[in-house]
Amino acid sequence: MNFREPWPAGAEEATALQSRLRRSVTRTGPAVPEIRRLAGLDVTYSKDDDRLIAAVVVLDAATLEVQDVVVHEAKPRFPYLPGLFSFRELPPLLAALEKVDHLPDLLMCDGHGIAHPRRFGLACHLGVVTQIPTIGVAKQALIGTYEEPGPSKGDRSPLTDQGEVIGSVLRTAAQVKPVFVSIGHMMSLEVACEVTLNSTPRYRIPQPIRLADQTSRRTLKSPQTYLVSDPRPPDGYQSRPA
DNA sequence: GCGACAG
DNA sequence: ATCTTGTCGC
What we know:
It is a single chain. By secondary structure, the chain is α+β, with helices and mostly antiparallel strands. The protein has a single domain (29-227), classed as archaeoglobus fulgidus dsm 4304 fold (2-Layer Sandwich), CATH 3.30.2170. Helix content is 25%, strand content 24%. It has an eight-stranded mixed beta sheet, sandwiched between helices. Strand 2 (52-60) and strand 3 form a beta hairpin. The structure holds two DNA strands. One of its GO terms (molecular function) is deoxyribonuclease V activity.
């Protein structure tokens, strides 16, 4: 899944592309026991320059044992605009995914899935492009209305927009603010919530995303940790001779 | 027009 | 998102 494809030049093109791609999103997928490998994805940005680091952490869905960690450094190809988030983070995340040895059965994204104005957030885009089931877990709502969920871990309330349930406001731990779970592609909301809870043993943020966040952040500060292992073509090498 | 607005 | 240590409280 290379991504040197044409990329939308602005908001107009990007919005049009979302409206077209949204039609291929499906809302049913694997059951919890069938999800063996779970990946968390995140991107960290530098304040000094225009570098960004994408990280993918693959873990055993049952034990949460880390199986693989990959990072990728790149430059932004699109600005951050609410509702067009995927055009900023998709390219680096796909590049990082290409470095993973064994592809996971589920991708957990730091952002929304269908809980989006056009029902096509980052998790949907990533799922449609990779054809891997995806779910979105966001710390803040983008759209929708909801009631405060109960105080215990597992308590949830529907996130609604235009009379449609677009996600769940889920309490992942007691005494913490809830997170916003929505399906990306090839996934049901019920399974999405269960997997999220199963992968959140202690803190507010699910372990896969939390580890991806830490990995990308630490790599930006100390590149040698993971970036040294990045395969790099020799100087002057032309991967695709002109 | 005003406020809101994933990361 | 990014700038940032310790500290207060469950």
